[in-house]
Design goal:
- It contains 4 helices and 7 strands.
- It is 32% helix and 38% strand.
- The protein is globular and about 40 Å long.
- The longest helix is centred in the N-terminal third of the chain and has 19 residues.
- The protein has one domain: Gcn5-related N-acetyltransferase (GNAT) (Aminopeptidase, 3-Layer(aba) Sandwich), CATH 3.40.630.30.
Length: 154
């Protein structure tokens, strides 16, 4: 399955908001993290992210199946967020998208992200890609804890 990353534009905000909401809704229902879950992100906030960071549509067979945003903080690249529609998850799409952005953004050698400790599949994916757990740990509620990952590119 070939995936393409296509730079998002302001005109993609409705599409990406819909895909992001559908991708994160199952996690919202599971963890009830109403303040932090991207399924609840206002459309104007997503519009700002598209305008002021590197935001890509993840496209498979000409269909937008997800998105990935790269932000720059303190000489590190941050993946925040990455999302895939539920019906396309488990097919290696996120892995390919991460490989593509890592190859495209090379000014800094450090990559970071945060994920849900309780989502073992996400943790496995990032560890498989060479990310290592950091000391960052934030309890969001009694169901969910965010943890940090970091990768130093060679």
């Amino acid at each position: 399955m070939e995936i393409k990353l296509v730079k998002a534009t302001a005109g993609d905000v409705l599409l990406l908001h819909d895909v992001q909401t559908k991708a994160f809704r199952p996690l919202l229902e599971k963890y009830l993290d109403h303040e932090t879950n991207p399924a609840n992100e206002p459309i104007n906030r997503l519009f700002e992210k598209i305008q002021y960071s590197y935001f890509f549509k993840i496209v498979v067979d000409q269909k937008c199946v997800g998105g990935i945003r790269i932000a720059v903080k303190n000489n590190s690249y941050w993946i925040s967020p990455i999302f895939i529609l539920p019906e396309f998850q488990g097919n290696g799409i996120a892995q390919q998208a991460i490989h593509q952005v890592e190859g495209q953004f090379t000014k800094f050698s450090t990559w970071e992200l945060q994920t849900i400790l309780q989502e073992q599949g996400n943790c496995y994916l990032y560890e498989k890609l060479g990310y290592e757990r950091t000391d960052f740990k934030q309890v969001v509620n009694d169901r969910m804890t965010l943890i940090g990952y970091k990768k130093i590119m060679k």
